[in-house]
From TrEMBL:
Protein name: ROK family transcriptional regulator
Pfam families from the UniProt entry: HTH_24, ROK
Function comment: Transcriptional repressor of xylose-utilizing enzymes.
Coiled coil: none
Family from the record: Belongs to the ROK (NagC/XylR) family.
Membrane-crossing residue ranges in chain numbering: none
UniProt keyword terms in alphabetical order: Carbohydrate metabolism, Xylose metabolism
Presence of the UniProt keyword Cell cycle in the record: no
Length: 386
């Protein structure tokens, strides 16, 4: 196609035209030319190139009281997709996102995790079936992200620490080699943070706390996730909350994981607690005294964690994850009151916010980086095809 042989300047202009249409759906040619300072003939050339590549499409004509009505253009949201997967001990959630990061397909399956090639072969077959059922062709898939409970190598190919899934050292090769597009592992808390960033584009500095089956977290500075020199930034779960306290799965005592995870709230050692969370919060809503007491103790420990983190980094604190999605406004107010009571300097705790991505945040966040890369680095993606 034409754009495979364009000069650097034409590539830049082509990218600008595509980005403008992406940000301004249903825009006419004249608006594009005026806003970008590009001649109408040049805009027409780029529009034709993008139309031929099925990256944009026409979407009718704009209303006009004089002359011929202008043709409007919009991005073909299904021209490329990304797939995200959340892997848990006994199930997996698969989602597909269009170029606007909207979920266009979702599937939850029962699949027992095992640190073996056989597991990833089964997962590969599951993803193949998902793609076939939804008629996704490989050349439209930007990549697959797998959100997992564990620390991941910088290249996203292996577990560097995987105590929860007994997967330390496990590599993704068996799965990734089955596809012709990128595949990578991503720490589940980072995935949830990515989904939050996508929902809140103006988010700059923040502490993200993932309250789920296990505790997790992430640190945002200037809108970028801080992973640290070896990928351990944001592992709030292994901060000492109670010296010589309960024994964590990591082998140490008193980690925040022991007090702020789903296991801590429910008093359960189950590998998959989602159904238990449904039952717990149904009982809590009905006024069950045991659930209310458990939740109060749990929120007190979460408040200690929030206050400690905010003392280190004075930014908004966003509460996300499976448990946080159940919180009512009253629950959030109670957290704020508990944090204010512990605060040394200020009783203003409006910095504690509820996450906006309430459902499948890990699976969605595992796919978001591929969408973000394509929409923000369009020229680079074109060069890969040259």
């Amino acid at each position: 196609m034409d754009f495979f042989t364009l000069t650097d300047i034409k590539l830049k202009n082509l990218s600008d035209v595509y980005s403008f249409i992406y940000q301004h759906p249903s825009c006419p040619k004249q608006m594009i030319a005026n806003e970008l300072g590009i001649s109408l003939p040049t805009v027409s050339q780029h529009l034709n190139t993008l139309l031929d590549a099925s990256l944009i499409k026409t979407c009718g004509r704009l209303d006009s009281t004089v002359g011929r009505r202008a043709v409007a253009y919009q991005v073909e949201a299904l021209a490329r997709i990304a797939i995200g997967i959340e892997l848990l001990p006994h199930r997996a959630t698969i989602v597909a996102l269009n170029l606007y990061g909207k979920v266009i397909a979702r599937e939850k399956i029962s699949l027992d995790f095992a640190p073996t090639d056989d597991y990833f072969i089964s997962l590969k077959d599951t993803v193949r079936n998902f793609m076939n059922t939804n008629h996704y062709k490989e050349d439209t898939v930007l990549g697959i992200g797998l959100g997992v409970q564990g620390l991941i190598s910088p290249d996203g190919k292996s577990f560097t620490y995987g105590e929860i899934l007994n997967s330390t050292g496990l590599r993704l090769d068996t799965f990734a080699n089955a596809f012709r597009f990128p595949c990578k592992l991503i720490h589940d808390a980072e995935c949830a943070c990515y989904s939050e960033l996508w929902e809140q584009r103006d988010l700059s500095d923040a502490i993200y706390i993932s309250l789920g089956q296990h505790l997790g977290g992430a640190v945002l500075i200037d809108g970028k996730l801080q992973v640290g020199a070896t990928g351990k930034s944001g592992t709030f779960e292994h901060m000492t909350l109670v010296p010589d306290g309960l024994t964590c799965y990591c082998g140490k005592k008193g980690c925040a994981e022991c007090y702020c995870s789903g296991h801590a709230l429910l008093g359960s050692d189950a590998d998959d607690i989602h159904q238990e969370l449904d039952n717990f919060f149904e009982k809590k809503a009905a006024g069950d005294t045991d659930c209310l007491t458990r939740l109060d103790h749990y929120l007190s420990d979460v408040a200690v964690l929030i206050n400690n983190l905010h003392m280190v980094l004075e930014t908004p604190v966003i509460l996300g994850g499976h448990i946080a999605s159940y919180f009512t406004d009253e629950d959030l107010d109670l957290i704020r009151k508990k944090v204010a009571a512990r605060s040394t300097f200020d009783s203003n705790v409006t910095y504690i916010l509820s996450g906006k991505c309430k459902k499948d945040a890990v699976a969605i966040g595992a796919a978001v980086p591929y969408i973000q890369s394509f929409t923000e680095q369009f020229v680079a993606h074109l060069r890969q095809d040259i």
